[in-house]
Design a protein that fits this description.
- It is globular and about 90 Å long.
- It contains 24 helices and 21 strands.
- 36% of the residues lie in helices and 19% in strands.
- The strands form five sheets. Strands 12, 13, 14, 15, 16 and 17 form a six-stranded antiparallel β-sheet that branches. A five-stranded mixed β-sheet has the order 2-11-10-3-9. The protein has a four-stranded antiparallel β-sheet with strand order 5-4-7-8.
- It is of the alpha+beta class.
């Protein structure tokens, strides 16, 4: 490469890296993979090493991070936060170690600490006399953002230490994978933006201007560096980690003190696959010289310590071919596209299918059958199509116009991203879906009646809908292949024993659009019998706290349908008789009060629901102006946000017990 071409490429790489730094560090919304970013960075570094005159002070290779957000106050770090140089192969890791060895030729091997590289948000904490004074983001390494109030709400960060020390702490704020999935599921249900990965979810949660929102997100913290001007406090990195634990910090337990580079490589090999059993995201390993004196002696480059490096795991994103797009139709008629892929190894498993969510997502991605697509496991668990190859135009897969199962014209309700098959009465996919759901644990909980059996019963024309399950005889069941007499007896008895469900289970099992268990419970508590529910109008339904216009309309339309009324009559004829609320009322302490429960409590949610109902209260699934109280547990969802914005009274369990005793 000549000088002019090198100069052009350097300017292009600087521009691309700066744009992606802003997307990653400031907007918490990366446009490219970590692997692609690292490749650009390494290329820029190589060119600058070949042409030193092209290395300028504003180069990304000379800086850390990016600009800070203007909404937060600036904080100049007393001790600069550096980035880490990294490698993605063991040869580079060995070269780093050999450079260190040259500085200490008298030592046969050097003590190293190898740790998991947590994929979160770096934070700096300052303690004075053992009290947390400042919590700040890394920012550009020199100036960060003050987020002290948000930091105080995070698990693993003590506000007061066990000793009155003046120290600084470095660590990583992260969101567990399970919490990340739950947050994205809630956002999907509400039509809100989904986070790309746990790191961005943690960053977005930590940078909330309202610390109450941060508090209700499930954020955790691993401390990994202790800085003290008291040189007698510790002399090695592993001693510093022990002190951090003594002071009350969470330290990632998966670190090792080893001698030489070979054990480090073995640890990297081990964690490359074992990391998928962890409930937090990791993207590599960090290797540090253990001796603090050697660390100080070796010092830093303009952006990274010379005494530490990172080994990045191979990317868990792979290219494969989109062989087909399957269309499924659910129990309510929702039409969902599913990517069928050329099987490929990803994150320790063979992936053959991936989520496409809906047809708007397909259009956004611009993909079609035959495209090479990049897939990843969202939070290293759920396969998802990210994008197609650039300049590979095969057109865009068009949403079907008709249902492949019944031939009906598909519809897309205004304001929704999902297509529906409107043929609720004759679409085989919907009918079988409703039967399967009727028997599921979430609904009537009929043991032994699953997808395979429903398919056989329907194809044999033994049932036409879920009501027909109750007309089946043992002899009918024995007509099916592989169903023996004992199994037939068990299935028959399980079906018969489900004839007297609670009203909540019954309404849930009907597969009414927009009506889940909590909404069904609200209806069951308001009306004394099924006939009253069937004859309710929209006005009477929307008066129930927690039921909106769309849900009320869906309920009324369901019970006005001749097809549904016919099924309900069959259920009655077969002896299916839903019971009203089984809760025996004990007092009216909560009369006229509506509760919303969110988060994890000390006992199952049902325990608190029954307690509220026993004392005259109601439990709703959503927060509104009519909500009296929100009972808050650990790791609450977005209901906490809405309650805070509406000024709804928020209770913990202790407050709830006081209220129950009449001490409002």
């Amino acid at each position: 490469m000549d000088y002019l071409k090198a100069q052009e490429r350097v300017e292009e790489l600087k521009r691309l890296i700066k744009e992606n730094n802003e997307a990653y560090y400031v907007n918490d919304s990366p446009n490219i993979t970590d692997f692609e970013y690292d490749e650009m960075f390494r290329e820029l570094k190589r060119i600058e090493e070949e042409f030193p005159l092209l290395r300028t002070a504003d180069s990304p290779t000379q800086k850390v991070g990016d600009k800070i957000l203007t909404e937060f106050k600036e904080h100049t770090h007393k001790y600069r936060l550096y980035s880490l140089d990294n490698s993605n192969n063991y040869d580079d890791l060995r070269k780093w170690y050999e450079r260190i060895k040259k500085e200490y030729p008298q030592e046969q091997e050097i003590n190293l600490v190898v740790e998991l590289k947590i994929d979160g948000l770096s934070c700096a904490l300052t303690y004075e006399n053992g009290i947390l004074k400042i919590g700040a983001t890394r920012g550009n390494g020199i100036v960060g953002e003050i987020i002290t109030e948000n930091i105080k709400s995070i698990k693993g960060i003590p506000q007061k230490l066990s000793k009155p020390l003046n120290i600084d702490i470095r660590g990583e704020v992260y969101m567990p994978v399970t919490s990340f999935e739950r947050l994205n599921e809630e956002n999907r249900e509400k039509g809100l933006k989904e986070f790309a990965n746990p790191r961005n979810a943690a960053a977005g949660s930590l940078r909330q201007l309202d610390s109450g929102i941060t508090a209700q997100r499930d954020l955790h913290f691993f401390a990994y560096t202790l800085i003290s001007e008291d040189k007698s406090l510790f002399s090695s990195h592993h001693e510093a980690l022990d002190i951090l634990k003594e002071l009350g910090f969470n330290v990632n337990p998966n670190y090792s003190l080893v001698k030489g580079i070979n054990p480090v490589i073995k640890k990297c090999e081990y964690w490359e696959t074992e990391r998928f059993n962890l409930d937090y995201a990791t993207d590599g390993m960090v290797v540090k010289i253990d001796d603090i004196y050697k660390q100080n002696e070796l010092g830093y480059t303009s952006r990274a310590p010379k005494w530490a490096t990172a080994f990045k795991f191979p990317p868990e994103e792979v290219w494969t071919k989109l062989e087909d797009i399957e269309i499924s139709v659910g129990k309510t008629g929702a039409v969902t596209p599913i990517a069928v892929l050329t099987p490929v190894q990803l994150a320790g498993t063979i992936v053959k299918r991936a989520s496409l969510h809906n047809f708007d997502e397909i259009e956004r991605l611009g993909i079609n059958i035959g495209n090479e697509v990049l897939i990843k496991k969202a939070a290293e668990i759920i396969p998802k199509v990210i994008r197609k190859r650039e300049n590979e135009d095969k057109g865009v897969f068009l949403a079907p116009g008709v249902c492949k199962f019944c031939g009906s014209n598909l519809v897309k309700p205004e304001g929704e991203a999902i297509l529906y098959c409107p043929n609720t009465t004759n679409c085989p996919a919907q009918i079988k879906g409703r039967i399967i759901y009727w028997a599921s644990k979430e609904a009537m909980d009929i043991d032994g009646v699953g997808e395979s059996l429903v398919e056989k019963l329907y194809e044999a024309k033994l049932i036409e809908d879920f009501a027909d399950l109750y007309k089946l005889t043992v002899q009918d069941l024995m007509k099916l292949d592989l169903i023996k007499e004992k199994s037939s007896d068990n299935i028959y008895n399980a079906i018969q024993s489900s004839k007297n469900p609670t009203m909540t289970r019954f309404l849930t099992a009907l597969s009414i659009k927009l009506i889940g268990k909590e909404t069904a419970d609200l209806i069951a508590n308001e009306f004394s019998d099924l006939e009253s529910i069937m004859n309710a109008d929209i006005d009477s339904l929307v008066k129930i706290d927690g039921i909106g216009d769309k849900a009320a309309k869906s309920i009324v339309e369901f019970f006005q349908s001749d097809y549904n009324r016919k099924i309900l009559q069959k259920l009655k004829d077969y002896g299916v008789n839903p019971k009203g609320s089984s809760v025996v009322k004990e007092s009216d302490i909560f009369a006229g009060k509506t509760f919303v429960i969110t988060g994890t409590l000390s006992k199952p949610r049902q325990f608190f629901e029954e307690k509220i109902k026993k004392h005259g209260g109601k439990v709703s699934s959503s927060v509104s102006k009519k909500t009296s109280y929100v009972l808050l547990g650990e790791n609450p969802g977005s209901k906490f946000d809405k309650a805070s914005s509406l000024g709804v009274i928020i209770l913990n369990e202790r407050d709830f017990e006081k209220l129950l005793q009449g001490n409002e």
